[in-house]
Design goal:
The chain is α+β, with helices and mostly antiparallel strands and about 110 residues long. The protein contains 2 helices and 4 strands; from the N terminus they run H-E-E-H-E-E. The chain folds into 2 domains: about 50 residues, Alpha-Beta Plaits (2-Layer Sandwich), CATH 3.30.70.920; about 30 residues. The radius of gyration is 21 Å and the shape is elongated. Helices cover about 20% and strands about 25% of the residues. The longest helix is centred in the N-terminal third of the chain and has 13 residues.
């Protein structure tokens, strides 16, 4: 980001939220400041999106793009963990996380 004052960040986030091509947007610690996942019909459409819309967003200093070659793991269910008392060889209880798929957690 060229500027990181509150007004610029809010304006950037509001503009990103309005863009139908942005399917996910995250603010990050350090560089880069934001990670946007966008979807376009093809590479030419992406080039137009970057040149005409993304580069013009409030506060943008530079853009770095990465294209997905293939999905190795896609939409894996998230897991929730809670402590579970498990005996260890010395006979003392130990706490290990017990994880269950998010869809099976009540």
């Amino acid at each position: 980001m060229r500027q990181e004052d509150r007004d610029t960040l809010l304006a950037f986030e509001e503009a990103v939220a309005r863009s139908p091509h942005v399917v996910q947007a995250q603010r990050l610690f350090r560089d880069p400041d934001y990670l946007l996942r966008v979807v376009t019909a093809d590479l030419n459409a992406y080039a137009s999106l970057e040149d005409e819309i993304l580069a013009a967003l409030p506060g943008v200093q530079r853009l770095t793009s990465t294209l997905v070659m293939k999905h190795v793991v896609h939409d894996r269910p998230r897991f929730h963990c809670r402590p579970l008392a498990v005996p260890i060889p010395s006979g003392q209880p130990s706490t290990r996380p017990q994880c269950t798929a998010a869809s099976s957690v009540p």
